[in-house]
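Need MFS transporter's 3D structure for a figure. Predict it.
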Amino acid sequence: MLSPIQLYKRAYYGLSLNSWYLSLVMLINRSGTMVIPFMTLYCTQQLHFSIAQAGWIMGIFGLGSISGAFLGGRLTDKYGFYDVQVFALFSGGVLFILLGFQHTFLTLGIFTFILSLCNEAFRPANSTAIAYHSSGENKTRSYSLNRLAVNLGWAFGGAIGGFLASFNYHLLFWVDGCTNILAAVFLLKLLPRSGFTKTVHKTDISNIPSSAYRDGVYLVFILLATLFATCFFQMFTIQPLFYKTEWHLNEQFIGFLMALNGILIAFIEMVIVYNLEGKRHPLKYISLGIFITGVAFLLLNVLVPGKFSAITVMVLITIGEIISMPFMNAFWIVRTSEHNRGQYAALYSMSWSTAQILAPTVGSQIILYNHFSMLWWIMALMCGISSIGFVFLYRFVLSPKS
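Structure prediction for MFS transporter:
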């Protein structure tokens, strides 16, 4: 029986130094993630937009993210992951600051699109960089380490963001922008350009689909992932508004909930992934995690409104996230080679960006014509469909026809 200390040592053992550097850059970047979680509140509370308008702003952000992910993947395969990451971080930092000066629906929408276009190009480049700096034995843990950095930064940013929002929403834009720029500086210092600016090398690709867009199994995977992500993003878009307007929780506590998500992931995800990795097919874990997330959304209509209920829901969503998301990366990365990894990473990023459009726009429209309770029933149902879909995909993948 291993002690907790031994478990943590084994969970982190064998990861490359550059993987740690990439995670540190991500930690700095995500520590300033404050604008997006509070955007619906900012639009409705500060700019006095309607819920539908706030939903459209978040949808515009998602539309820009899709374009940015596609562009980032193409640029990564053509020019390499290094320059794409640096450009995305610097440009995103400047644009976050400029976004804070936009006060009309039109200008806020325009700047939101440009920001998300530049900012989202970072994702496929970063995913490709993680794969480049990891081995076949520790790729899943390398991605989990990166997610740990994301969520630890999210925990810090969410907590500080809730505190800053209670005083002045405009501070969120400055902090988010400055941390983006600081992350770019650290990337340049810790991982200077040294021969890995181009990700394409000669490799045996006979057993790998030539294009992500012609990989039928992967396209089904992307469809199911998008369905799940549309539900998951409610946590960052509509759910804070629900807690504020329906359960009457304040910004500080909403920030604490966001921080709790990140803290739990930071403390337990690597150990869980270490213990699960290689024991079952990734699609089995994905299906289970999505099912747990669906149960969490269902409980929003069942539990008595209050802080304890909100914490319970967040814990369940976090557990579902921990079990599903690292193994999503594990699934797609083994289907790639260095010549097309940017495509696969881009398509995966695009699925989540598509969900960023669908989550607030669909969610806000359901609320507008019905009520929050209907939204949570629908989200629970969608998670159930996605979970079952991954079970069927698992059986298909393991069949000789796959």
